[in-house]
């Protein structure tokens, strides 16, 4: 299996969350072709793809064959390394078939699969224990947004505190194994991205929590929610944002190609 990114780096991380797409394995090649001649500035950007778990081994093999400088992510993981948990996949299993990262606590997992802050906390610990970098997703729903900035910050602080409960700060810091993705729920899949200014403000707040409560001053903090080829530079080229988590636009071949073009060297 390919293992290119073995340690933390401060490159901006551009992670593509393919969610539950594509339907057929045969369509993956078409998507991967977009990376072929993208000429990405790999000194500045690290690329990761989070496909449905069934495709991880296949994509890892393709990357190995072509020596691709791309990391792989799970979209979720179980909180145990193995056990009687029908339908679940552990972080160890993901790691063993080529994943470097695990997205945890995505709002779709919270919303449709009943994931609680407690479960998410256990998953973050499990991912880190397995040697993966946890990409913890946080973000407020519209109802909270409407209450104003103080409510947003309070909501996000709670999500972070709950998710970090089982994790000693020294562990997260020394292994540099945690990334936060700020994904406001109202921005996901709606075409209504946060403004870069809003994203930067919340990200700065998250940075201050990580610094003061957990002594993690340098964790990467990403923005996600309706990022596309047009707005991606506004987010990823800004000093206050350490990358992007991109959903819908990353499973549209044309859009993906256009996004990658903006990351060229
Ligand atoms: P969209 O880019 O489709 O809004 O999705 C964002 C997301 O959920 C990434 O995890």
Any idea what the radius of gyration is? Answer: 17 Å
The number of distinct helices, counting runs of at least 4 residues, comes to 11
Bound molecule types = 1,3-dihydroxyacetonephosphate
CATH homology superfamily: Aldolase class I
Number of strands: 8
Classify the beta-strand content into a percent band: 15-25%
For the largest sheet, list the strands in their spatial order: 1-2-3-4-5-6-7-8
Tally of individual domains? 1
The separation of the N and C termini measures 27 Å
By CATH, the architecture is named Alpha-Beta Barrel
Strand and helix order: EHEHEHEHHEHHHEHEHEH
Largest sheet: 8 strands, parallel, barrel
Give the helix/strand class: alpha/beta
Q: Assembly state here? A: single chain
What CATH calls the topology is: TIM Barrel
CATH hierarchy class name: Alpha Beta
Overall helicity: 25-40%
Average of per-residue pLDDT values:
92
* Poorly predicted segments: 1-8
Morphology call: globular
Overview of this protein structure:
The longest helix is centred in the last third of the chain and has 19 residues, at 196-214. The protein has an 8-stranded parallel beta barrel with strand order 1-2-3-4-5-6-7-8, surrounded by 5 helices. Helix content is 39%, strand content 15%. The chain has one domain (12-261): Aldolase class I (TIM Barrel, Alpha-Beta Barrel), CATH 3.20.20.70. It has 11 helices and 8 strands. It starts with 11 loop residues before the first strand and ends with a helix. α9 (196-214) links the parallel β6 (178-182) and β7 (221-224). It is of the alpha/beta class and 265 residues long. Residues 1-8 have low confidence and may be disordered. Bound molecules: 1,3-dihydroxyacetonephosphate. 1,3-dihydroxyacetonephosphate binds at residues 17, 106, 183, 188-189, 224-227, 245-249.
């Amino acid at each position: 299996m390919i293992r290119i990114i073995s340690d933390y780096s401060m490159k901006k991380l551009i992670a593509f969350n393919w969610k539950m797409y594509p339907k057929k394995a045969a369509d993956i090649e078409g998507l991967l072709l977009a990376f072929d001649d993208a000429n990405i500035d790999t000194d500045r950007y690290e690329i990761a793809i989070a496909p449905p778990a069934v495709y991880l081994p296949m994509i890892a093999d393709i990357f190995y064959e072509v020596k691709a400088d791309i990391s792989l992510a799970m979209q979720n993981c179980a909180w145990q390394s193995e056990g009687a948990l029908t339908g679940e996949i552990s972080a160890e299993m993901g790691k063993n078939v080529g994943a470097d990262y695990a997205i945890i606590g995505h709002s779709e997992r919270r919303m449709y699969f009943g994931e609680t802050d407690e479960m998410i906390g256990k998953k973050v610990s499990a991912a880190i224990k397995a040697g993966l970098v946890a990409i913890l997703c946080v973000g407020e729903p519209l109802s909270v947004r409407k209450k104003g900035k103080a409510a947003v910050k309070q909501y996000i602080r709670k999500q972070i505190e709950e998710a970090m409960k089982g994790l000693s700060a020294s562990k997260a810091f020394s292994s540099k194994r945690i990334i936060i993705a700020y994904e406001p729920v109202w921005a996901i899949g709606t075409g209504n991205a946060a403004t870069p200014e809003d994203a930067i403000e919340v990200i700065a707040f998250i940075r201050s929590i990580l610094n003061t409560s957990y002594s993690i001053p340098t964790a990467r903090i990403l923005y996600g929610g309706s990022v596309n080829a047009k707005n991606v530079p506004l987010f990823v080229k800004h000093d206050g944002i350490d990358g992007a988590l991109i959903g819908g636009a990353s499973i549209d071949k044309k859009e993906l190609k256009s996004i990658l073009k903006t990351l060229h060297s």
